[in-house]
Structure formats: C-alpha cells, structure tokens
C-alpha cells in the first residue's frame, strides 16, 4: 500500500486521541445502569464510520442495544469484506484493583509494551481493535486505495451473548452479503511473533441457584440439621470434575474433536515458556485436565469454570447464618462439534440430578455459542498471512484460541462465509480484568496491516 | 411475688413502648458504619438501669464497644445475682426480605404469636430479652420485693465474639463477684411448653481466602489451564464432610462428649414434629450427620457450616472471568469438651494441607468460645424451674441448645459461678434472619417470671 507508513506517521496522534475519546464512554452492556453510555458509544461509532469514508451509515435498532452498520460499495463486481466488531465492554469491577480509573485512559509502559500501552476497559477488547479497521478504511479512502467493497457491522452486545445480533444477521442476509468476514477481537503470540487465530471455542454460560430453607437461619439452632445451600452448592460444583479434572457431566465429551498426534505436535511448536507463564501469573504450578499440555488445555479441550459464586453473609465481620439461597455463574468452553445448546441441556439435567433432598435447584442459561475453525488454505487466511508478512517481516503462526466469539459460527451458517481472525492483542493485555490495556505499537501495526489484507484479498480473489 | 400481675397490667404499654424505642437504634456491632448507634444504645441502657432502681450505673470503656454495668446492693449477706445481656444486634441484611424495616418496630400477629410479636432486628436477640430483666428489677424495687443483690453487665460485642468482655471479666473479678449468673438470650420449646437451656455449643468462626493467579483472568484464554480459586474452594469445602456428613478434619471428634443411650432417650421426649419442622422451613427433607436425629444434630453434635461465600463476578448478567481470589466464612459449632482454640488450629492445619498446588490459602480465625453445661441439681436451675412453674403452671423441660454464648464458659472459669439460661424466645422468632420478632406474650411472661427466680433463689440459698 502506498504511503501507509507516512500517513500513519502524520496522523498517529489524532488516531490515538480519537480512540481515547471512545474509551472514555463506559459502554458496559451487562449492567443496565450504563444504558445511556452504551447508546452514546453507538452514536460515536456511527460518526467515526462516516468520517472514515462510508457512503452509508445507520444505527440499526434491535430489541437490545443497536448495531452500527456502515458500507462503502465501490464496484458490485469486486469482492466485499464484512468487518465485525463490538463497541460494548466488560464490567470493570473489581475497581479497587485498577491502577488508574477504567474509563480515564492513560498511556503507561509495560514489559510487553515498551513503547507504551493504552490502559482502559475496552482498550483491547474490542474498541481499540475495532477502531483499527475504521482508521484503516480512512487511509484507504483518503488515498484512493480501497481495492474492494467494505461493510461494517459493529454491535453492542458481544459481552452479553450477541442475542440480538443473531436475529439481525438472520433477517438481513442480503444487506450483509459478503465474500469474507474480518474480525480483530483476538490476540497474537507476541509483538515479534505474529499469529492468526484459526480456531475458537464455543461457550455455554449458565447461572445456578440452590435454595434450602425458606429463610436465612441461625447456624447454631439449625446448623447440621438442615441442608446448607452453600455447602450443598460447593459439593455439587466440586463433583463436576473428577480427580483427573475431567468433567463428569454424562455425554459432555461425546462430540469433542480429538486432534491427531501430528496436529498436537504441530501445535507444540508455538513458542511457549511454562516458567514465564507461571511467573506472569505468580502461581507455583499449573492445573488442569490430565494428559494435556497447558496450551492444549486452553484451546483444544473443553473446560468448566465457575466465574462467580455468592451466598450468605459476605460483609465485614462475622454472622452465624445459614443462607436460604446460594448462587453461582458457571461457564463451559466448548470445542468444535460440541453443540452449546445440547451441552447446556446436559449440564442442566445433570446438575438438577445431583441435588440432594432438602434443596431445590434452578439452572438458568445465560448465553452461548458454537466453536469455529478456519482452514488455512482459505484465500482469506492466505491474504491475512501475506499482510502480516508484509508488515511484521515474518509469516504468522496459525493458532487455536481458547476464547469464544459465538457469532462467528453463526456467520458461517447464515451468511455462508468464513471469518478471518486478525487479532493484535496480547495475552498479557488483561482483557476482562482490571488494568486492561492495548499496546500503542499493536494499535498502529493493526492499522498498517489491515489495508494489506484488503490488497492481497482483492488480488487472490481475481 | 405480690402484685406482679397488677403491676404488669398497669405498666405493660409503657414497657412495650420503652422497648420499641430501644429497638429503633441500629446497634450493629459487626459493621463499623453503625458505631455511633451502638454507642447511643449503651447510653440508653444506662439510663434504663438508673430508672429501674440501680444505685450505681456506669459505662465501662473497653478497646471496643463499652459495657454497661449497674448494681443494687441491698445487703452484703444476701446472695448476688449477675444479669448478663447484650445491646448489640446482628446485621439486618438481606434487607429486601424484611416485610417491615428492621429498625422500625411494628407489632404483627403470627401463628406462634396470636397475641402479636414485635418485629425488629434485636427484638428477641437480645434487646427484648435483656430488657425483661430491667423491667423485672423495676417491679422489685418499686414494690420493695428485691430479695437479694443484683448486678447488671450488658455488653455491645456479643454478636462479634465478646473479645473485650473477656478482658473486662478477667480484670474485674471483685466487681463482678456473684453467686449465680442469669441470662435470657436463648429460647424455649413453645409458649405452652416452657423449657430451660442446660447446654450450649461452643463456636469456632474462621474466614478463608484462596488465591490463584495474581489477577482476574479471561476464562477463555486461561480456563482449564490454571487453578480456578472458586472451583478449588468448592472442592476444599466439599471435602470437609464425608458421605455420612461426618466432618473430615483429623482430630475434630477426639474430645466430643458422647451421650449415653439414656440421655439420648431423655432428650427424645421433648415434643417435636419433624413434619411441622420441615413445613416451617419449606424443605422436602432434613439433612445431616448419619446416625443422629434432627434434635441431636443441632444440639449434642458438632457441625461445620459455611456462613458466607463469595468470589468472581456476582453482578447482573455474565462475565467470563477467572477470579484471582475466592473467600468463605465458615463456622463450627462445638460440643462440651471440644476446645475452640484447638479446633480452630486443627481446621487451619487441615484446610491448608488440602490446598492443591497452584493456589495459596489463608485462614483467619474470627472468634470462638467453649461449650457449656448446667447441671439440673444446681439450686440456680431449681429456682428457675420453680419460677417457670409459678407463672406457666407447668415444670419446664431441661434442653440442650445448638446455639453458642461463648462467654458463659468464660464466666464459670473466671467468676467461678454457674449460669442459668432463662430464655423466652421461640425457634420461629427468626433471630439472625430477616423479620426477627419477639412475642409480646413472651416479653411480659419473662418480666413476670424473673422476679420469682430471685425469690426462690434467695430462699434456696438460705
């Protein structure tokens, strides 16, 4: 691409300031208290797409938060790229662990980001990565180098399961028609080890409630004589893994894709230091399913984790009470071929079956999605690989991610097109955690790399 | 006692109003936000003792909340009764489950209290029961029928372990010198089935913290590859009971007092309907240690219950996070001969020993106390039994309680005197729960019965 480096040089400060403004809006979709901020963010995204050169931009209403759609169609005969991203963010708590306020972006240096990183909720997931595409489009339009048609679909409910996006996609197949889908909502191995995500895990997220007595009880008068919902919940959750950390839900593994020794050997080639991994997390030892390596456990194997648990007295001091109810939020990461709705049903059936007499159990599905795999012989993957090579000077490594972007599988099903996951974040960027950040280097590198994807994809499509 | 019924008749409305005023002050000792209210309550108790006829009343400073001390010494040669009670209350949460605000007392009828009950936090535990003694003293002084000396010691830290009371007792043995200690902070079987508590369980209350990774992590990227502190905590807590609901802590049962078949048969005579018990709690089945009845499980057997648990995301919606830390508050009810400090050490040692690699465990003792037994051949018990017979028209049943009043064992050790537990509450009074209440009948019956205890105790002491 002509002048990409000089254009970046000239506008980099403005690009960063624009992103900072976007990050200041607390668009937390999980918490209705932030409703107006989420809507404000959609408005800001719409304006940015117009400024970047889209011919037509609209805010599409849904039953939940709106979807910002934008397009620039230059020639019906050229291929069309659909860019997907999300403008909503994860909740910021626990706030006390942030070294600077989550919605007051600041730039600080880190070991992985010696050139500095933008610290803010959503910096990496996904406002920062989504905005790279907006700025890449700006470059291509302003310098008349846009080689194909482009459509943007930026949603506001990714962190809560994209329920309404699914409906939107199903009912707008013509509008969203495309040849390839491009998403930057994943990571790469390191700033000098580029990688492209070729697989995603599915997800089933449920909330469970265990109810014992109809009211909180005095633990002295009733302790030991009635089922304590918290003790029962811990027993039920503990029983979901056996001594080898296999998940005990009947049928859970039935459809799990088993990789060949060759595939596993190929995976094992990705640079990885267990020592650094443990050091970075300050843990003495890793933990997980017997018979699999750390990188296998968090990518090609399904998992079950409690994401939150609460019940009884959790305030200051001591209260000798037996709670009437105990709750937990539990998520399962699924691998290709596991159907999330089937797994959710298996979980509910099993969890209800293991409840002892004396308690009532309620399982409420939150959301979920299927796993996904991109074949590396797809021209979209090849175009992406060439783009990274052009800007990083080395071929990217194809990599399975442990994360989930539930709608990717849906895109394939409804829009009949593959998705290319060009992620520029790092594992150490603390997404979903306090002090989330996104490298300034990564932000600029993304803006620089994306136009090359357009270029090579257009060429390979001829 | 002459005129007790007529005196009650004449002043019952005022007695109730005075109690209501006391209940309006939210004296929650566990939450420092209520500090001024706790101190205000001490002041109110002081004034009430002066009005009731104490010659000397003082607010004794401690390192925590003060102890209100009052006395009326009529004759050094007469026996001295020490009345103990507490003016602090349990936290009121969960507030949303109260049918009326916890600190705006109202009188409502219930199945167990057809004459109405006072609904407020502390109504039964222990402001209402403590205040019966103040009003009983008022009657005896105003009608010149006080048959012996009396001392009051009303503390403000019972709900948080009476740490400073212990120091106070140890350093004021002469001031607190007495022949018998009288406490109303327990219950009776029913309004037409009077009973006296002859045993209390000990208590060990600890807080545990499990720390995994040094920060919250994305459950997709790390799930299944690192120890999830919440999953680990559930496994650790679950393992504290075996399949028979025996506690698995090594040495936990070593010193447990084992009752004879005769004693257990005697206990079994107390009227009890398992059907009504389950109905009252809306549970399908009871639950507990194999080989013991419900009444044995909550009185003569030690127990372990989680009183609170928390970790991860507990807000609205879903967050796919692996928490860095998980916490629980755990209390153990102990029986005579189990030493709470020894049990606390055994718990900590065991809990730390079962932590898997990859997590750090911290156990913090909150507070505790020893169990206690009153022999029924003690003249204090006999005087109490005669007092109930005089006012209820039937002999009370001696009963072991599952609750704990840690300082009772300390009183015996430091002051060398026995404690008589004349409790007038009912199990259904929901102490420590939303909608705590105390029967108006019980309040008046207590005021009527207590003077008889003084009378018979003085006579039996001759």
Describe this entry's structure for a reader.
The structure is a homodimer of 462-residue chains. The first copy, chain A, is α+β, with helices and mostly antiparallel strands and 462 residues long. Chain A has helices at residues 4-23, 35-52, 127-142, 163-171, 219-222, 229-238, 261-268, 274-281, 294-297, 340-353, 379-392, 407-415, 440-461; strands at residues 56-60, 67-72, 80-86, 106-108, 117-119, 149-155, 180-183, 195-200, 202-211, 217-218, 303-312, 321-322, 325-334, 360-369, 372-373, 397-400, 419-421, 437-439. Chain A is 34% helix and 21% strand. Chain A has a 6-stranded mixed beta sheet, with helices on both faces. In chain A, a hairpin with an 8-residue loop joins β4 and β5 (117-119). In chain A, α11 crosses α13 (440-461). The interface between A and B is large, with 103 and 103 residues. Chains A, B: Keywords: Dipeptidase, Hydrolase, Metal-binding, Protease.
Topology:
The structure is a homodimer of 462-residue chains.
Chain A lengths: L3 H20 L11 H18 L3 E5 L6 E6 L7 E7 L19 E3 L8 E3 L7 H16 L6 E7 L7 H9 L8 E4 L11 E6 L1 E10 L5 E2 H4 L6 H10 L22 H8 L5 H8 L12 H4 L5 E10 L8 E2 L2 E10 L5 H14 L6 E10 L2 E2 L5 H14 L4 E4 L6 H9 L3 E3 L15 E3 H22 L1
Parallel strand pairs in A: 3-6, 3-7, 7-17, 8-16
Antiparallel strand pairs in A: 1-2, 2-6, 4-5, 5-18, 8-15, 9-13, 9-14, 10-12, 11-13
Helix pairs in contact in A: 1-3, 1-13, 2-3, 3-13, 4-12, 11-13
InterPro entries (chains A, B): Bact_exopeptidase_dim_dom (IPR036264), Cyt/Met_Dipeptidase (IPR051458), Peptidase_M20 (IPR002933), Peptidase_M20_dimer (IPR011650)
Keywords (chains A, B): Dipeptidase, Hydrolase, Metal-binding, Protease
EC number (chains A, B): 3.4.13.-
């Amino acid at each position: 691409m002509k002048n990409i480096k000089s254009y970046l040089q000239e506008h980099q400060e403005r690009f960063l300031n624009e992103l900072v403004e976007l990050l200041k809006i607390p668009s937390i979709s999980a918490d209705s208290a932030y409703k107006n901020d989420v809507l404000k963010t959609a408005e800001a995204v719409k304006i940015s797409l117009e400024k970047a050169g889209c011919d037509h931009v609209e805010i599409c209403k849904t039953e939940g938060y709106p979807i910002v759609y934008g397009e620039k169609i230059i020639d019906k005969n050229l291929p069309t790229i659909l860019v997907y991203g999300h403008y909503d963010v994860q909740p910021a708590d626990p706030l006390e662990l942030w070294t600077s306020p989550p919605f007051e972006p600041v730039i600080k240096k880190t070991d992985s980001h010696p050139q500095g990183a933008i610290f803010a909720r959503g910096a990496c997931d996904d406002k920062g990565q989504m905005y790279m595409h907006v700025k890449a489009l700006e470059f291509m339009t302003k310098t008349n180098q846009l080689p194909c048609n482009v459509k943007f679909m930026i949603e506001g409910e990714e962190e809560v399961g994209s329920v309404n996006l699914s409906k939107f996609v199903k009912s707008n197949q013509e509008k969203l028609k495309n040849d390839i889908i491009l998403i930057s909502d994943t990571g790469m191995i390191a700033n000098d080890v580029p990688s492209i995500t070729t697989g995603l895990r599915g997800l089933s997220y449920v909330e469970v409630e265990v109810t014992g007595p109809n009211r909180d009880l005095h633990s002295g008068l009733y302790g030991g004589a009635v089922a304590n919902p918290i003790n029962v919940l811990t027993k039920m959750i503990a029983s979901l893994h056996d001594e080898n950390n296999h998940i005990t839900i009947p049928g859970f593994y039935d459809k799990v894709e088993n990789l060949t020794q060759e595939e596993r050997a190929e995976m094992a080639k990705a640079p990885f230091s267990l020592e650094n991994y443990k050091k970075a997390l300050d843990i003495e030892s890793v933990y997980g399913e017997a018979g699999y390596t750390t990188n296998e456990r968090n990518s090609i194997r399904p998992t079950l984790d409690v994401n939150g648990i609460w019940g009884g007295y959790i305030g200051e001091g001591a209260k000798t009470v037996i709670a009437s109810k105990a709750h937990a939020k539990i998520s399962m990461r699924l691998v290709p071929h596991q159907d999330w709705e089937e797994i959710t049903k298996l979980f509910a059936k099993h969890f209800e079956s293991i409840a002892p007499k004396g308690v009532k159990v309620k399982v409420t599905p939150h959301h979920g999605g299927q796993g996904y795999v991109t074949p590396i012989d797809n021209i979209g993957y090849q175009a992406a690989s060439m783009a990274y090579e052009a800007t990083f000077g080395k071929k990217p490594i194809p990599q399975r991610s442990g994360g989930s972007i539930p709608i990717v599988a849906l895109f394939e099903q409804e829009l009949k097109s593959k998705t290319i996951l060009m992620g520029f974040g790092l594992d150490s960027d603390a997404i979903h955690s306090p002090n989330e950040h996104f490298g300034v280097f990564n932000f600029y590198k993304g803006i620089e790399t994306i136009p090359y994807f357009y270029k090579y994809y257009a060429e390979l499509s001829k």
